[in-house]
Amino acid sequence: MAASADDLPRSVLVVEDDTILALATEEALRAAGIEEINICNSTAQALQMLRAISPDALVLDVHLADRDDGWAIAELVTEMGPNPPRIIFSTGAPRDIPQDIVELGTVLEKPYEPEQLLTALREKPKGLLARLRGALR
After folding, report:
1. Please, which residues have CB within 8 angstroms of residue 22's CB and are 6 or more apart in sequence?
2. Residue 10 CB: number of other CB atoms within 10 A?
3. Helix 19-31 crosses helix 114-122 at what angle (to 10 degrees)?
4. Among the listed residues 137, 29, 133, the one whose alpha carbon sits nearest the alpha carbon of residue 90
């Protein structure tokens, strides 16, 4: 049985500096039933958008044109209160992401299929207890 749009987040912020990939991601999210999608192509734009909206999920390219450590956005997002957005890291070089940052979300290695992104968005975000267990191992 296929999962429904109800399993997906209501709003998604896509931070991607490759215009074609950003538009393909937006198309896949819209086709899945997500209506509120915002796209940013830089760290500065993403931070500005995060001040204006509270997305349910963040698809984050970690190597942006303006910064090579896009995961810094993920660190800030985790401080957004008790229900921070679910984080999906989108990267061609997953080994470049520090391990403690990887634990903040799900990593998808480019290129990936739209269904892989939707599956990652359907996963329940790791709660504080799960993160603490991981840190104690």
Report:
1. 14, 16, 39, 41
2. 13
3. 60
4. 29
| Cα(85)–Cα(77) distance, integer angstroms | 7
Q: Cβ–Cβ contacts within 10 Å for residue 80, how many?
A: 13
Is the Cβ–Cβ distance between 135 and 21 less than 8 Å? no
Q: For residue 137, which amino acid is it?
A: R
pLDDT for 67-119, tens place per residue? Answer: 777 778 888 887 777 788 999 999 998 998 888 888 899 999 999 999 999 99
Mean pLDDT of the chain: 85
Question: Could you tell me the domains of the chain?
Answer: 9-136 (3.40.50.2300)
